[in-house]
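Sequence in, structure out.
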Amino acid sequence: MEHAPTWLTYGFLYLTAAVLAVPIAKALGLGAIIGYLAAGIAIGPWGLGLVSNVQDILHFAEFGVVLMLFLVGLELQPSRLWALRRPIFGTGTAQVLGCAAVLFALGSLAGLPWRVSLVGALGLALSSTAIALQSLAERNLMRTQSGQAGFSILLFQDVAAIPILALLPVLGAAAGDGAGHTPGELALEVLKIVGVIAAIILGGRLLLRPVLRWIAKSNTPEIFTAAALLLVVGIAYLMVMVGLSMALGAFLAGVLLADSEYRRELEADIEPFKGLLLGLFFIAVGMSIDFGVILRSPGLMAAILVGFLAAKAIVIYTLAKLVNIPYQERPVFTLLLAQGGE
């Protein structure tokens, strides 16, 4: 008997695991994300061991998050995004800096070097956009005050990731490992970033709609679908080339097309790919969980997890009170952002 190709075997395993695990999780009231994670654990190295090449799958499946942010952008017209500027930059800044300060203090108290504490605090102050937005969508919370505030903070976190990543080589240079950039190199990086973002905005205003209109005239639905995917892939490629978030670029492209006549067509074409890739992303996350680390020091890992979640939850709940999020929505808002980013 001939062996099936690897891609076919993996495809069969992913689909089977998802089809079995997600409905069970939904029936138990746990949500689709838990189902996908459980499916990944079941077929991964610490489960049945059916899949071993996890990292390549995870990188590919991250594109589901990119497509999700593109679709979110399509729902936000530029005028509405401008109206959210205060929660994005005000509440978002307060959340990132507040959580980072508390986590930095905890790291310092634990005896970690200040540079390690700072890098860890800045990274862990961010939340998982994929988990948060998927949870909001599943529970129809995007239109609530807590959902809007949570989305604004997540958007700011994507922006904040840029200077945080730029800070890493500076800290490396300060530590004397020679890995830092010169001021001229940093200035060049900033110019590249500004140039790419400006190109996306200007290109979206001047070129995207005429190009989509020209493609639509061909009356070939599959080509329009290909063009929609090419748009997202192309912008993601540009953002990666200058070290920026693919998801942020896709979101900007979505906003620029939010008031175009092809908005609904783009949503209909992208949605199926987004759903499948996002599910694959959560399966890959489940497969990549290293239970060996947990089993070696279960007490320590539990203490770190509880301390981390409690520290972030206190800051975020306090922030919810300060920005007048309704009392009944504060627990959801807190749980939404207390988890760490992937």
